[in-house]
Amino acid sequence: MSIDIGGMRIRYKDKDDTFLETHLVSKEPFGQFKAWFEEACSKKEILEPNAMCLATVSKEGYPSARFVLCKGYGKDGYKFFTNYESRKAKEMAENQNVAATFYWEILNRSVRIEGYVEKLSDEESTTYFHSRPVPSQIAACASYQSTPIESRDILCDREGKLEAEYMIPHKEVPRPSYWGGYIIRPRAVEFWQGQKRSPA
């Protein structure tokens, strides 16, 4: 049975409040993204303005998507970190082409990025890894993304052993070799602003 939700719609901007090209802060993607991202960060209702939906494609051509947190951006691209043994990492190793989308609901705005990924250097990955709270570092070490486990108890046991070893002052958690960063090198960036809704 198909559930009809065709009637679900909201009103975006009024006719007199349409977003025009003259409202752009910059006609260069980085400047415009920076302006929109900073405005999203200023809205307390947006809990994670840096959340982006990352889409990857397997070598067979099957797409998959999930949310990751953008941890840096600039004219060179958009950075994020993950487990190199996860499904997304394996797909990126087979096919470097990716897409990512930011969506800020209360602003009725979205930014789409199409490009390809490159791994960040070991030095940059290590620097970022040690900037994270120690419990987050331990969680990254304990988690084998996309790998089945028999029960949550096994994961908790891994974390418990690592906490006993590293949750002490001045003891550094080594960055695991299977964890690090990527940068999306954009080929295209598209900005979307919700306008006056259509009657249909």
Automatic annotation (TrEMBL):
Q: Which cofactor does it need?
A: FMN
What does the record give as its pathway?
Answer: Cofactor metabolism; pyridoxal 5'-phosphate salvage; pyridoxal 5'-phosphate from pyridoxine 5'-phosphate: step 1/1; Cofactor metabolism; pyridoxal 5'-phosphate salvage; pyridoxal 5'-phosphate from pyridoxamine 5'-phosphate: step 1/1
Q: Which residues form the Pyridoxamine 5'-phosphate oxidase N-terminal domain?
A: 44-156
Keyword tRNA-binding appears in the UniProt entry: no
Question: Coiled-coil regions in this chain?
Answer: none
Q: What molecular functions are annotated in GO for this chain?
A: FMN binding; pyridoxamine phosphate oxidase activity
Q: Which UniProt keywords apply?
A: Flavoprotein, FMN, Oxidoreductase, Pyridoxine biosynthesis
For this protein, the record's InterPro entries field holds: Pyridox_Oxase, Pyridox_Oxase_N, Pyridoxamine_oxidase_dimer_C
Ranges for domain Pyridoxine 5'-phosphate oxidase dimerisation C-terminal come to: 179-196
> Which E.C. number(s) belong to this protein?
1.4.3.5
The GO biological-process annotations, alphabetized, read as: pyridoxine biosynthetic process
Query: Tell me, what does this protein do in biology?
Result: Catalyzes the oxidation of either pyridoxine 5'-phosphate (PNP) or pyridoxamine 5'-phosphate (PMP) into pyridoxal 5'-phosphate (PLP).
- Protein family membership: Belongs to the pyridoxamine 5'-phosphate oxidase family.
Assembly and interaction partners: Homodimer.
- Please report the name of this protein according to its UniProt entry: pyridoxal 5'-phosphate synthase
